[in-house]
Design brief:
mainly beta, PH-domain like, 12% helix, globular
Length: 111
């Protein structure tokens, strides 16, 4: 179900506080990536850091749209995921519009 930015931030704060194991996935030209980690930090607004054993990923979520899915809703999720937050960022919708087009990725909580 579509989620407001405030609801998405609440979900991600919960994941941060509980030190939840997360999987970040993105597939699409020109990048495909799957990485497991935890939320390392949150600046209180739009900048998140996920970190794992050998990576740190900064997510700047200004202008993002979110869709939350829970396995209890009967919706198929990637293997091992109990819930997920799909994120879509369109460069033109950011506070300072950027020419990068549309970026989509999925963050899911691992069970």
């Amino acid at each position: 179900m579509r989620s407001s930015p405030e609801e998405a931030k609440r979900i991600m704060r919960k994941w941060e506080q509980e030190s939840s194991r997360l999987r970040f996935t993105t597939f699409g030209p020109p990048l495909g990536c799957v990485a497991d980690g935890r939320i390392k930090s949150f600046d209180g607004d739009d900048l998140w850091e996920l970190s794992g054993d050998s990576f740190v990923l900064q997510l700047e979520l200004d202008g993002a749209e979110f869709e939350y899915t829970d396995a209890r809703e009967g919706i198929l999720l990637p293997k091992g995921c109990v819930c997920s937050l799909a994120v879509t960022i369109e460069g033109a919708r950011r506070m300072v519009p950027e020419p990068f087009g549309t970026v989509r990725f999925l963050i899911c909580e691992l069970g």
